[in-house]
Amino acid sequence: MSEQYPPGSWPPPPAPGPAPLPRFPHAAPRPYHLILRTWNYRWWKPLVGVLSLLLAMFIVAPIVFLPVLALGVYAEGGDFWTKFQDAATLKTIDPAALLYLNLVLGSMVFVAWFLVRVIHRLRPRWLMSVQPKIRWRLFFACLGLAFVALLAQVLVGMLLPQGADTSMSGKLNHFTATSAVIGLIVIFTTPLQAAGEEYVFRGYLMQAFGSLFGVHESVVRQKLSQWGAILVTATLFALAHGLGQNFPLFFDRFMFGLIAGWLVILTGGLEAGIALHILNNFLAFGAAVAFGNLTDTLNVTDVSWWNIVNTLTQSGVYFALVLVVARRMGVQTRTRPPVPATPDEPAVAVT
Predict the structure, then answer these.
(1) Paired strand residues for 31
(2) Measuring CA to CA, which residue among 24, 173, 190, 174 is closest to residue 103?
(3) From start to end of the chain, where are the E strands?
(4) DSSP β-bridge partners for residue 334
(5) What is the dihedral of CA 173, 177, 180, 185, to 10 degrees?
(6) For residue 112, which of 204, 228, 233, 316 is within the disulfide window of CB 3.0 to 4.6 Å?
(7) Which residues of the chain have a pLDDT value below 50?
(8) Which pTM does this prediction carry?
(9) Is residue 249 helix, strand or coil?
(10) DSSP code of residue 171
(11) Rounded distance, CA 254 to CA 267, Å?
(12) Residue among 201, 196, 190, 189 nearest 278 (CA)
């Protein structure tokens, strides 16, 4: 015999418990560096995320892609073990080593997505921009502006005394089958490698440190929080390229991180940084294949002090152009939580 319930008592009331969080992650508009300051923010989440990211970048991903490196070295022929060691430590940059390096760095896009999804319970698209999505119109505009900035850098560099770049011979290299392979690797994997670095330094680390520095009502403390995130990530970006670099080279990489980080805040997304990073690496790799070699280019530790002029030219021109174009396009720079229909109704837009 079925159990009887009094009229109106079925189904039973839900078990008591905490109310579910609103589905939009922010109660108020947030700039890019504070996106991880969500309804369910906890201080330990960005710390766990940063440690996990560093572990993946410097240990896990390099080990995972070792079979790719081994296959590439084997296909090149020669003394396998010696070449494998040199390629794994980036002592010598040949096609196998370049592919290995780009895949390791490119995989950081997926690592950052994973951390945002698992630790912070956000959809990965919140790493791209405050909308949240990639804004293709802005991205392609920034590609054009990056070309102009790099052209200005090259023209200014031609006016500087010799020695502004000591890694180039000035003579055109002979085109070989190895050159063709390197060219294909650069074309097809450099965009992923550049995006991976941006997702790490201007993406997840910017948001992680920004959330740790906190949300403040004071304008002064807001600026300190914002610039704290920019300066920390720019410094880490420069240091990640090597501890033995001289000041002009460190300054070049620091300024790249500074300008890219500042544009992330001012445009609300990664598009400007990714666009400049892709074209900058295309230029560097292309010049190395044509006039130098990849080993010297990627392992360079000493550049002329005249290189600071090149750095300031590229950074200044690009920053000014992106700022003007972004403002004319009216790009969104903060998240936009939906307005509740009633004062007591939570915002429920899908993240």
Answers:
(1) 334
(2) 190
(3) none
(4) 31
(5) -120
(6) 204
(7) 1-3, 5, 9, 164, 341-345, 347-351
(8) 0.88
(9) helix
(10) S
(11) 20
(12) 190
